[in-house]
TrEMBL record:
Signal peptide: none annotated. This is Chloride channel protein. Belongs to the chloride channel (TC 2.A.49) family. The lineage of its organism: Eukaryota, Metazoa, Chordata, Craniata, Vertebrata. CDD domains: CBS_pair_voltage-gated_CLC_euk_bac, ClC_3_like. The gene is Clcn4. It comes from Erithacus rubecula. GO terms for molecular function: antiporter activity; ATP binding; voltage-gated chloride channel activity. It is found in: Endosome membrane; Membrane.
Amino acid sequence: MVNAGDMNGSGNLMDFLDEPFPDVGTYEDFHTIDWLREKSRDTDRHRKITSKSKESIWEFIKSLLDAWSGWVVMLLIGLLAGTLAGVIDLAVDWMTDLKEGVCLSAFWYSHEQCCWTSNETTFDDRDKCPQWQKWSELLVSQSEGASAYILNYFLYIMWALCFAFLAVSLVRVFAPYACGSGIPEIKTILSGFIIRGYLGKWTLLIKTVTLVLVVSSGLSLGKEGPLVHVACCCGNFFSSLFSKYSKNEGKRREVLSAAAAAGVSVAFGAPIGGVLFSLEEVSYYFPLKTLWRSFFAALVAAFTLRSINPFGNSRLVLFYVEYHTPWYMAELFPFILLGVFGGLWGTLFIRCNIAWCRRRKTTRLGKYPVLEVIVITAITAIIAYPNPYTRRSTSELISELFNDCGALESSQLCDYINDPNMTRPVDDIPDRPAGPGVYSAMWQLALALVFKIVITIFTFGMKIPSGLFIPSMAVGAMAGRMVGIGVEQLAYHHHDWIIFRNWCRPGADCVTPGLYAMVGAAACLGGVTRMTVSLVVIMFELTGGLEYIVPLMAAAVTSKWVADAFGKEGIYEAHIHLNGYPFLDVKDEFTHRTLATDVMRPRRGEAPLSVLTQDSMTVEDVETLIKETDYNGFPVVVSKDSERLIGFAQRRELILAIKNARQRQDGVVSNSIVYFTEEPPELPPNSPHPLKLRRILNLSPFTVTDHTPMETVVDIFRKLGLRQCLVTRSGRLLGIITKKDVLRHMAQMANQDPESIMFN
């Protein structure tokens, strides 16, 4: 017997794998990353750069560039996300108005911009100017009458259908991943799942264009959720330019967490709320370094959007408001009632929407996405046009509902009966009796509320970009404004009641209906998404009013409690489960008393575990094992008899290693011995060169004993982001538990279908 290492030159050949080769450490589509491995690889990379930086000035400069690359990526993400959000806002404004008319002086102006430039507008008719013409005025020279109304109605529907058809066609042909909100998938990606193409360049381009089209079409959806997806696409693009992020999936996810914060920052003009949203709602792994970088990305994005100034009011959002009246303790009761309404609406919406989406998936309805979008758009446009509160864009509606009624307001909601003897400052108008305009507005709002509740259930989840923040806020704002007007009129007509006597004297400005709209919007958004801290911060950044935090907190907490009483899942978690993504939610509790041995594979009656031995299998044996199974990796043991665990080898890396060895090493043939030890095994003379694969072996795979409680195993999978965990007893391998096994077991324990977990 001779040692194979003594053969002529074979020592160098066998160790060629000690040098890295392409694609090692990458993952296949629809697979989960190994967080511990990614962290370890980044630590090794950092250690190498630090040690090299002491060798020369050039290496020191390279180490500085590496350290600053994270901040550079954040700067680029903020700049691009802010620019795209500004462009989307401007385009939506123009295309929404295009459904009703066109600016003759410059067709690319929206209605508001067109009349800004006019010298012929009066204060009372500030929305009317000769440069802006409705389609009926342009085509048949009539602005009033039945024929003009019917023509405008018809063209409104046609434009809406045109925009929606173009959007769904672009999504279907060029970027199927551009549909939906994107937040459920981003949550899954940030938890360590790979969905190739979901954050690609085509998805970014098509989502940006189609987002403008669908919001302009008047469908009951918002752009805020999809803007998070757009920002994450920007993050993915810029991280691919730096090897520090492109070659490490764990580090890439830190960038994506910060990009999500930038997305919310430009969606709501709320940089701090964006950071908290990323921390509370989206991110799975959020170290302190990512918090700082998220803050910086959100700051740059908000600054960029502010520079573009898409709304022309020097604000980051359309519905910025300022109130001049404090709130009173007695008002907490209606605020809490709005919280209850928000929780009930959230529960109703989630259950109905998931039932409809499941029906779409399991019936023939799902085969006709274009037809579905066209039908829903037609229904929305036909019902929305007659009601002025549903005809306008949802953001404008929320803006009007949030507004306080000042002396300069011309809205129907501000049609109060004024006291001719009133001599007060403009900002402090006392409570007044409601006029006929307020009563008709209440009826229209009630009809709009019912319409929004129903149509949003069918709209969210179609094959177009669709956000949920704005429709949810609209539902809450309409309910809140109606409650606010009710409380205001009650206080005016019954100011001698004991609840009003202490704080609402005749002639005082007691109740602000706009504040109720804001609280209702927060409650409904909280009921649907189950956000709390980030929601309150986003809402107070929207309004700039610190003193209204307590009403917002009361409504947000109440809506969460009420919604949680009917089910713990928010809309995003519900869609994750509907799509079968392998997402281990940190909020879920596992309280069942099962053990690792109950979940591990192989079970009783199943074939034994597929393993590799440390030095007794040939290349052909390994290739056959890979071909006959579809496992992501294989435990390596001393021998099949002893089953003492040595380590774990990933399937993809085995395939790449053998392929590279065959290309670069002449001596490797099918009956070459594969070994994972430091020293090659003793082989007979004239035997082919053995192949050393120790470099791709994980020598410290995570293991638990067979009597470890599953509660602990689930916690380990959540907190360490494991792909798989090996089960041993006294060092002897018994089985394996994968993330998919854990999810199936949790589904089984919750009396759900364990086969609904589709991916690896």
